[in-house]
Design a protein that fits this description.
The protein is mainly beta. The protein has helices spanning 91-96, 143-149, 232-236, 241-244, 297-300, 308-311; strands spanning 4-7, 22-27, 36-38, 49-56, 59-66, 71-76, 86-90, 101-108, 115-127, 131-140, 155-157, 165-170, 175-180, 184-186, 191-194, 201-207, 213-220, 228-230, 246-254, 257-271, 279-289, 304-306, 315-319, 324-328, 334-336. The protein folds into two domains: 12-32 and 189-330, Acid Proteases (Cathepsin D, subunit A, domain 1), CATH 2.40.70; 51-180, Acid Proteases (Cathepsin D, subunit A, domain 1, Beta Barrel).
């Protein structure tokens, strides 16, 4: 049978370079928790689905019931590029669920190596106490990934599972809230940024040490524990990296194994418009340079991945229906180490 190609492209585990000297500066009025409500006339059953999560080693781990076989550890990775609801599961879990194996496929991620897996029977994924999603499934051996993540792992779900909701990833409270998209109303003063409806892609301003500012299209990637991963092409379009950036060599671990990369120091990254009340500023931070596309057309249009090292201090609200993401942050300066 002919192979197909999927991707779990945003899954780097901890790298060998320490991300230091990164500070978040917040400009504008004090921001508390997200002020959100349901539309008038809503019933208690319209309250959000609440799923607690563990935040460990820079990644989000949920406990979800799969195929009626009890609870399993599943990572939320919005960098999982699939148009349909697809879950990647460990081969041993596929065996426990007694799913029939289908055609072979290659799963592509950051790193030099492809992962060989197989399509398996669709399975039910229970989101919290109310929603059951019938999901396509693919399986591969998670052994190396568990070692890299230093955490148990049975499955991976992506942004497609969130698209039917307003999905609030509350990092401080360690909870995922899935709100009814049609009835959701937002009344807070968080930073609202335009986002693609099909993928969590946003545009930010990045300032190079030369003082030059450039707009970058980034994927919000909860499968990455970095601050920022930039594609070398983005830097290359604006001059040789060795002349405009402070570059060091390092290595990083992705789904495709360990790979060499440059570590670059950037001056500033700005979220939101130029309004004083809507601006979030990240100053003096390190980013990785690594090719993101690896033959995946959807990612070839990206300039970089925005990872959990920035997001972990925020309440991140994905609202695909309205084409926006809302960032709620504490009204303080926070040193990120």
């Amino acid at each position: 049978m002919s192979g197909t190609r999927q991707t779990v492209a945003g899954l780097p585990a901890s790298g060998s370079f320490l991300f230091l000297a990164c500070c978040v500066f917040l400009f504008g009025s004090n921001r508390g928790r997200a002020a959100s409500t349901l539309a008038p006339g809503s019933s208690p059953s319209d309250s959000p689905i609440v799923i607690p999560f563990e935040y460990a080693h820079g990644h989000i781990f949920l406990q979800l019931a799969l195929g009626g076989s009890g609870m399993h550890t599943v990572m939320l990775d919005t960098g999982f590029t699939s148009d349909s609801k697809t879950i990647a599961i460990d081969s041993r879990i596929a065996g426990q669920l007694r799913t029939d194996q289908g055609e072979p496929l290659q799963i592509v991620g950051l790193g030099a190596d492809d992962i060989h897996g197989r399509k398996v029977d669709d399975i039910d994924v229970r989101l919290g106490d109310r929603a059951i999603v019938r999901s396509a499934a693919e399986s591969f051996d998670f052994t190396a990934l568990r070692v890299a993540l230093r955490h148990p792992l049975d499955g991976i779900i992506g942004f497609a599972f969130l698209r039917d909701y307003v999905a609030e990833v509350d990092y401080p409270d360690r909870v995922l809230r899935l709100h009814d998209a049609a009835r959701y109303r937002y009344h807070g003063d968080g930073t609202q940024i335009s986002m693609d409806k099909s993928r969590p892609r946003i545009r930010v301003r990045v300032q190079l040490p030369s003082g030059e500012e450039r707009e970058a299209q980034l994927l919000i990637d909860t499968g990455s524990d970095a601050v920022l991963i930039l594609d070398p092409r983005f830097v290359g379009r604006h001059g040789p990296s060795q002349r405009i950036l402070n570059v060091e060599q390092s290595s990083y671990i992705g789904l495709g194994g360990r790979f060499a990369c440059d570590v670059v120091q950037l001056s500033k990254m700005q979220f939101g418009d130029n309004s004083f009340q809507r601006q979030i500023l990240i100053q003096s931070f390190y980013a990785l340079l690594a090719p993101l596309s690896r033959g995946v057309p959807d990612r070839s249009r990206l300039d970089g991945d925005l990872g959990n090292k920035v997001l972990e201090q925020m309440d991140v609200i994905f609202d695909p229906r309205r084409g926006r993401v809302i960032l709620e942050v504490p009204p303080v300066k926070v040193a990120m180490r």
